[in-house]
Design brief:
The chain is α+β, with helices and mostly antiparallel strands. The chain has helices at 4-11, 33-46, 49-53, 59-78, 119-127, 170-200, 216-220, 225-228, 244-275, 284-292, 338-348, 362-365, and strands spanning 20-27, 84-91, 96-102, 109-113, 131-136, 140-147, 150-158, 206-211, 231-236, 280-282, 296-302, 309-311, 318-319, 333-335, 352-356, 367-371. The radius of gyration is 26 Å and the shape is elongated. The chain binds zinc ion.
């Protein structure tokens, strides 16, 4: 399954004269779709097959591409694939072959470039947060840990609670109600402590809390501040009837809207910083220049948007167009997606990436970034 280590390894892959073939293909849940899956991948591979026959290329380059196609096809035929998607990265001339399972479908795509095309991997991984989903009522708790769509039940327990079908009138009823409230408070505190311990041990990043709408606020009040900021949201669920699958669906919906809200917040923050004259790049042109000089701290890119451009493999200069690099004078390399080169450069420079799916002004800008320092003037620019 996809990990940050895989992405880092692919980012560090250095370009050479051998092309890298990157393939993404959706894997359907049902088994009869396997033949169809093979046919789809074969179809993708056919798009670059002419390159393996192209006599204008060096023989070892042609052989590398031919081996890539064969290796990917072998991997497609042999293995059992888990539903979601699979990505292959192959550059036989440089001894690269990676197969990566993705937990969710991505668009089928083949890209041939000097470096691995990693954006769908990065976008997928950033969507996943180690999450604790907890279902709580006045005396019971159940919790699950989610990661990459896998779910594991972690804690389940019940604290004492008065057995009653109702509270009698008068002082006896008040006393019973008071006792029940005290026991509930004790239970909530115990659950909060348990979650806090697990959170501080690094077992999860985000929390989704389910229960009865009228009971949740009292429980949330028991969470310490550092855990409360990790609350992605709440959902309504009944302790007795909720199935793990329902909890998973609810938690997923909570995380989905939390992610979209987070994206909007990051875009606002970046555009506000730019408007206030703080170091920021707005638009692809400035963002590419920021990536060229390792200035980007946090890069936001519109999900699904690919833009051709150029890159200098000597010093990492990135731009939308050009024939020679203004920094070193070398000839530039054309790339089918310069945003991917930018994402890889920012990861390599230790910056963070967010693929934005929410509707925000980033749709017009394609990319924006908060910066570590103001952008230097561009080479050859008058001002
Ligand atoms: Zn250069």
């Amino acid at each position: 399954m996809i990990t940050q280590e895989t992405i880092d390894r692919l980012v560090q892959f250095e370009e050479s004269r051998f092309p890298v073939v990157s393939v993404y293909a959706q894997v359907d849940v049902d088994q009869p779709a396997r033949l169809e899956f093979r046919a789809r991948v074969l179809d993708l591979l056919d798009r670059i097959r002419p390159m393996a026959e192209d006599r204008s290329l060096d023989r070892d380059v042609r052989m590398s591409v031919r081996d890539d196609l064969a290796r990917i096809m072998d991997a497609v035929v042999d293995d059992r694939k888990t539903p979601g998607a699979v990505a292959f990265f192959s550059c036989s001339g440089r001894n690269l072959f990676e197969e990566v399972a993705l937990p969710r479908p991505v668009h089928d795509r083949i890209v041939q470039d000097a470096t691995p095309w990693i954006r769908p991997l990065v976008a997928t991984l950033e969507e996943y947060h180690r999450t604790c989903a907890v279902l709580v009522d006045r005396s019971r708790v159940r919790s699950w840990e989610f990661y990459l769509d896998e779910m594991r039940e972690t804690d389940t327990f019940r604290d004492p609670f008065p057995r009653t079908t109702g509270y009698p009138d008068g002082r006896g009823g008040d006393r019973l109600r008071h006792k029940a409230d005290e026991m509930t408070k004790h239970h909530y505190r115990r659950v909060a402590e348990l979650l806090t311990d697990r959170f501080r041990r690094g077992e999860f990043e985000l929390l989704a809390v389910g229960g009865q709408a009228d009971e949740l606020p009292a429980f949330l009040d028991c969470l310490p501040a550092d855990l409360r900021v990790r609350l992605a949201g709440t959902f309504t669920a009944d302790m007795d009837s909720a199935t793990p699958a329902e909890v998973r669906a609810s938690a997923r919906a909570v995380l989905e809207s939390h992610d979209r809200a987070e994206e909007k917040r990051l875009v606002d923050e970046c555009l506000d910083a730019a408007a206030a004259g703080q170091p920021a790049a707005v638009g692809l042109d400035d963002s590419l220049w920021a990536g060229s000089v390792a200035a980007a701290r946090s890069l936001l890119v519109q999900d699904g948007e690919t833009v051709p451009g150029v890159v200098c493999d000597r010093d990492g200069w990135l731009a939308l167009s050009g024939t020679t690099c203004p920094l070193c004078g070398e000839a530039v390399r054309q790339t089918p997606d310069v945003v991917d080169e930018l994402v890889a450069a920012v990861i390599e420079d230790g910056g963070s990436i967010e693929h934005v799916r929410a509707k925000t002004p980033l749709r017009e800008h394609v990319a924006a970034a908060t910066l570590r320092f103001p952008l230097p003037p561009r080479p050859g620019a008058d001002d």
